[in-house]
Write a structure and sequence with these properties.
Structural class of chain A: alpha/beta
Shape of chain B: elongated
Distance between the termini of chain A: 55 Å
CATH class of chain A: Alpha Beta
Number of domains of chain B: 2
CATH architecture of chain A: 3-Layer(aba) Sandwich
Order of helices and strands of chain A: EEEHEEHEHHHEHEHEEH
Number of helices of chain A: 8
CATH architecture of the largest domain in chain B: Orthogonal Bundle
CATH topology of chain A: Rossmann fold
Strand order of the largest sheet of chain B: 1-2
Largest sheet of chain B: 2 strands, antiparallel
Shape of chain A: globular
Number of strands of chain A: 10
Distance between the termini of chain B: 47 Å
Number of domains of chain A: 1
CATH superfamily of chain A: P-loop containing nucleotide triphosphate hydrolases
Helix content of chain B: 55-70%
Strand content of chain A: 25-35%
Largest interface: A-B, 32 and 43 residues
Radius of gyration of chain B: 22 Å
Oligomer: heterodimer
CATH class of the largest domain in chain B: Mainly Alpha
Chain lengths: ~250, ~170
């Protein structure tokens, strides 16, 4: 199965005075294995709601959703909870780490929830923390970590069960420039490892690294573009130094 | 660029090749886009303007080399250039006028122009980030790339404001 996500005509309405608001209004979307897709759009355009629908945190009012080829829009909350543990990794702006657990315990959690052994969970968690450069912080509680470290721990937790897709909602929203750089390098590694990634973001630096960019407005995808081709590095550099000028 | 080339000579007299090396080191990857002839053309212009002076220096086993030195007025010019606070491109006026003109003439959809422009800037940003990742983080070139990247991000941020404004106007 090459498409990890396929959505057809997804609709999500919120009750409102008068007629309900269509937060997501007929979205068709696919994410292929190994692909990074970024979603941009103004606040309130429905991009976070779309991400919640794709990860089963909210249910669509209409439309079809397939995850790894399996139809999932009709699943119950319990079925979704099981599916999410193994197939979907979430990364949020606010990290959503469990404050009472150490970094490594946070990362292990999804393995234990899937019924993995403690030993295996610890080994895989430490491997990931090592890869993300935060192994020496493994024994610390989240409030002892910097924002960038917390987000790397959150990414490790999202990855540990080798999900079909990682869904990230403003992953760099709370981070300074340096920590954002770290997360960007991390996402670059995930792309190389062919991890499918869907990122909802306002951050142009994050969005520009995707293979494909979706633009949303008023609950609908209004543009889809491949980002890879186009402007050459030489053209960017020439304009950067204004070297074509009078000299 | 011309003042930049002039100023790189303020430290000590240099010949064309050395100057070009200094310029390339300062610009990092952007220096690769530099036309080698450009430095020499600029030097002869600066010489004609009386800002630099060329001297032939004899070298053992090599032909004489031309060494350029700043004149007193060249030094003065560099001083002015360093103190000048003119900043390039405060506002993207041209693009702003495009949007206003597109809306007024109905020759194009302003929101579509914003979308196309954002895509182009995102592509440029992607290239800059790839170049920055290939540079040693403490090099002069990487600092220039960071400046370019931050400016592009500011422009993209402004395009979001343009998007909000023109979507609002269209739906009115």
């Amino acid at each position: 199965m090459n498409q990890v996500i396929e959505a057809r005509g997804l609709v999500r309405r919120y009750p409102a005075e008068g007629s309900p608001i269509r937060a997501v209004d007929g979205v068709d979307l696919t994410v292929e294995a190994g692909e990074t897709v970024s979603v941009m759009g103004p606040s309130g355009c429905g991009k976070s709601t779309l991400l919640h629908l794709l990860g089963g945190l909210e249910r669509p009012d209409a439309g079809e959703l397939y995850l790894g080829g399996q139809r999932v829009d009709g699943l119950s909350e319990t079925q979704w909870a099981v599916l999410r543990r193994g197939s979907v990794g979430f990364v949020f702006q606010a990290f959503h780490l469990v404050d009472e657990l150490t970094a490594v315990e946070n990362v292990e959690l999804p393995v234990l929830l899937l019924g993995g052994s403690r030993r295996d969970a610890r080994r895989r968690a430490m491997e990931l923390l090592e890869r993300l450069g935060v192994a020496e912080r493994a024994g610390h509680l989240p409030d002892r970590l910097s924002g960038g470290e917390r987000q790397r721990v959150a990414v490790a937790r999202a990855l540990i069960n080798q999900p079909l897709v990682v869904l990230a909602d403003e992953p760099t929203g709370n981070l300074d420039s340096r920590a954002t750089g770290e997360i960007l390098r991390l996402f670059a590694e995930l792309r190389e490892a062919r991890q499918a990634l869907l990122i909802v973001t306002h951050d142009a630096r994050v969005a520009s690294t995707a293979h494909r960019l979706l633009t949303m407005r008023d609950g609908a995808i209004v543009a889809q573009t491949r980002l890879g081709a186009g402007t050459s590095a030489a053209a960017v550099l020439a304009s950067l130094a204004d070297l074509g000028g009078e000299g | 660029m011309r003042d930049g080339i002039l100023s790189l000579r303020a430290k000590e007299p240099a010949h064309g090749y050395e100057l070009r090396q200094r310029l390339m080191a300062a610009l990092g990857p952007a220096g690769a886009a530099l036309n080698p002839g450009q430095v020499y053309v600029t030097l002869s212009r600066l010489e004609r303007a009386g800002l630099v002076e060329a001297k032939e220096v004899a070298q053992p086993n090599h032909p004489d080399k031309k060494v350029y030195e700043l004149t007193a007025s060249g030094r003065e010019r560099v001083g002015q250039w360093l103190a000048d606070v003119t900043w390039s491109k405060v506002a993207p006026v041209e693009f702003h006028l495009k949007l206003v003109a597109a809306a007024a003439t109905h020759l194009a959809d302003p929101v579509a122009l914003v979308d196309a422009q954002r895509l182009e800037l995102l592509r440029e940003l992607r290239q800059l980030q790839e170049l920055a990742q290939a540079e040693p983080p403490d090099s002069d070139g990487s600092l220039l790339l960071e400046g370019a990247s931050l400016r592009l991000q500011a422009d993209i941020h402004w395009l979001e404001a343009c998007e909000r404004r023109w979507v609002e106007r269209e739906t009115r």
